[in-house]
Amino acid sequence: xxxxxxxxxxxxxxxxxxxxxxxxxxxxxxxxxYTVLDTAGRRSAAQVGQLPQTSYHALQTPYSFFGLGRTNNxxxxxxxxxTIHAPVHYINMEGVIPNSKVVILPSSKEGERWKExxxxxxxxxxxxxxxTVVVGIxxxxxxxxxxxxxxxxxxxxxxxxxxxxxxxxxxARAKENISxx
Length: 181
Fold this sequence. Notes:
Layout: E1 11-12, E2 19-20, E3 31-37, E4 43-49, E5 75-81, E6 90-96, E7 100-105, E8 115-120, H1 125-159, H2 168-180
Antiparallel strand pairs: 1-2, 3-4, 3-5, 5-6, 7-8
C-alpha cells in the first residue's frame, strides 16, 4: 500500500495534539513490480498498479493485492514507483517476506527518505521458529564451552599448569612469587 496523505506517514488531528497513521488513503499512479524465484528456480517478474481506473468508474480499494504464485523463497526485489515530480520517485526493497503487508510512505519533502513498514501475520510457525533459534543458540553455546575446556586442558598439559582453583595457601604463594620479582 502506498500512502501519500501526510508528511512521511504521520497526520495530525485538527487541534494538533495527537498524531496517527492515515492508512487507507488512496494514491493514484503508484506502480509495483516484484521479482521472485519459483519452485523450479526460474525468475519471474510481475507488475501491478494501484488505483488503475479512469474517471466515471467505481472506486477501487486504496491498496494493491497481488499473489506471488508458488514460491518457497523471499521476494528478491520489490520496486515501487510513483508519479511524484521529484528526482527520487521510487524505492527498491530487497528480501521482502511473502505473506506480509508492506506499507510504503513516500515523503512529500524533496531529498527525504521514504518510510517502509512491514507487517507480519502471526501464525502457527512463530513458536517453532523461536524453539529452533533457542536450540541453535544452546547447541552453539555447548560447542563453544567444550572447545574452551578442551583448549584449557591442552594448554595445561603442554605447559604443566594445574587447573585446580587457588586455595588460600596457593594465593599466598602466588603473592610471594609476584612480590619477590
